Prior knowledge:
Elements: E1 7-11, E2 22-25, E3 47-48, H1 56-62, H2 70-85, H3 88-101, E4 106-110, H4 119-129
Parallel strand pairs: 1-4, 2-3, 2-4
Amino acid sequence: MKKKLKLSAFQIGAPARRGEGLRIGTTRRPPRGIPKSRWVRDGYFDVWLPSLAPSTKLLARFKNRDFDDPSVRKVFFDSYERELLGSAEGRQIVQFVARVAARTSISIGCFCDDETRCHRSRLLKIINKHAPAA
């Protein structure tokens, strides 16, 4: 049996909610025009971890695709998961985040308005799949 993780998602720029814990920004690029010194103070995120974001190559492949089409989203999410878990670094980061989330609250964030259309929805599932045994 896998441990229940203390893991949630948030939209970057939204005010922190009680119990969110460590807020991790999982975007390819940091907030535009915001100095690094203000990321935490202004509530964007506590740490930026672009290694958990889709690659620029993957994002470019889907830039002009119809994301309203569920089949397009499925192909994107499947491609993202393969890309993330296809490298030792990606697998290690996912396992690390899962281990930390087994001990303390973590929130995964991105700029997208709709979490169902965002990589963070799949990332939550990926991290949960790598939860340590209870």
